[in-house]
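Protocol step 4 of 5: obtain the predicted structure for the target chain.
Materials: sequence only (see below). No template structures provided, no constraints applied. The aim of this step is simply to have a reference model before the mutagenesis design in step 5. Sequence pasted as it appears in the construct record:
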Amino acid sequence: MDLTKDASHLRDATIEKQRQTISELETPVIQVWDRILALPLVGSLDTARAQQMNEALLQGIVDTGSEIVILDITGVPVVDTAVSRHLIETVKAARLLGAEVLIVGLSTRTALSLVQLGIDLKGITTRTTMAKGLALAFDRLGLHVVERGQRIDGFPVTGQ
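Step 4 output (structure tokens):
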């Protein structure tokens, strides 16, 4: 009987660890640079996942002191009223913690859908690609990317 209980506890612990791993993979908050977080979304976004996403993102903002969040929706197949509501809630919550959210990865289809649905994104900065969002984030933080060997103010840029 004790062996059965031990096996059951081991199985339950394994399942819980797998659930936690899946949860972390569903909402990967990534620090891409000092003061910049990225949250790439892939797949559908329901209420439970949106709440999990918000909690992970807000905790990431607090933990890292990030000022800018790049929310990448390239991998979200459909942006409907419910999804757009979740995204707007995420933007508002992050702003309360002092972070600006850039929504990137908008396709022409997504842009048209949002317009047709009458979703108001006034005050929310959007870009078509992650690269454009990252460039804007760097600009907002006063950061510049330069190639090794370039000169800035007459001084050569060297790398390590």
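Step 4 remarks: The CA atoms of residues 38 and 69 lie 6 Å apart. The chain has five helices and seven strands.
Proceed to step 5.
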